[in-house]
């Protein structure tokens, strides 16, 4: 199965934002290693977004903004674990871990008051296989709900990244790179 990768960076902001492709060879590695490569691809602190797809299996987004930490989202962490990019996804919190962290933040301070209903895993969460930060593109105009819907709907990875590109304004650039 084939991989598709593209690295994009916006010029401008808001409605005046135009995305351009950035020439860089993406190699599998840790998020920090990839973040360093992405930061080195631009001259300023502009956001840099790597779009990764594995044909018919998963898509991933990797973002860095200057010296800010790298943010990663992968639509199917289980399938991606068997890919050349597995080191990039190895340390990401999974959908279930994200849900447990949210529940812990929302729960009362008395852990002994957990009901039987709370002790059972949510079947919807158990089926989710995404990992990472679904909010990595929220400030650019792609809400977390979109990434979660695309990762859980069985959407073709190429179609998913095009839909994200349409929201953010880089769909044409992305398609020109295919």
Question: What does it look like?
Answer:
InterPro entries: tRNA_Adeno_NH3ase_assoc_put. By secondary structure, the protein is of the alpha+beta class. The chain folds into two domains: about 5-90 and about 130-175, no CATH class; about 95-130, no CATH class. It has nine helices and six strands. It has helices at about 30-40, 75-80, 85-90, 95-105, 115-120, 125, 145-150, 155-170, 170-175; strands at about 5-10, 20, 45-55, 60-65, 70-75, 130. Strands 2-1-3-4-5-6 form a six-stranded antiparallel beta sheet, with helices on both faces. Strand 3 (about 45-55) and strand 4 (about 60-65) form a beta hairpin. The longest helix has 12 residues, at about 95-105. The chain is globular, with a radius of gyration of 17 Å.
Strand content: 15-25%
Number of helices: 9
Number of strands: 6
Tell me about the largest β-sheet: 6 strands, antiparallel
Q: Describe the strand arrangement of the main beta sheet, using strand numbers.
A: 2-1-3-4-5-6
In short:
It contains nine helices and six strands. It is an alpha+beta fold. The longest helix has 12 residues, at 95-106.
Chain-wise SSE layout:
Blueprint: E1 3-11, E2 18-21, H1 31-40, E3 47-54, E4 58-65, E5 71-74, H2 77-80, H3 86-89, H4 95-106, H5 116-119, H6 123-127, E6 131-132, H7 144-152, H8 157-168, H9 171-177
Antiparallel strand pairs: 1-2, 1-3, 3-4, 4-5, 5-6
């Amino acid at each position: 199965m084939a991989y598709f990768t593209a690295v994009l960076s916006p010029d401008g902001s808001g409605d005046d934002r135009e995305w351009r492709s950035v020439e860089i060879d993406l190699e599998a590695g840790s998020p920090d290693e990839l973040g360093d490569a992405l930061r080195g691809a631009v001259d300023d602190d502009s956001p840099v977004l790597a779009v990764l797809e594995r044909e018919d299996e998963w898509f991933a987004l990797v973002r860095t903004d200057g010296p800010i930490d790298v943010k990663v989202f992968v639509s199917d962490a289980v399938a991606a674990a068997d890919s050349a990019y597995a080191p990039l996804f190895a340390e990401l919190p999974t959908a279930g871990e994200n849900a447990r962290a949210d529940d812990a933040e929302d729960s009362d301070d008395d852990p002994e008051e957990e009901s039987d209903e709370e002790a059972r895993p949510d079947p919807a969460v158990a089926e989710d296989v995404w990992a990472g930060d679904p909010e990595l593109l929220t400030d650019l105009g792609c809400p977390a709900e979109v990434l979660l819907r695309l990762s859980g709907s069985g959407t073709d990875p190429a179609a998913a990244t095009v839909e994200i590109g349409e929201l953010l304004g880089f769909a044409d650039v992305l398609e020109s790179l295919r």
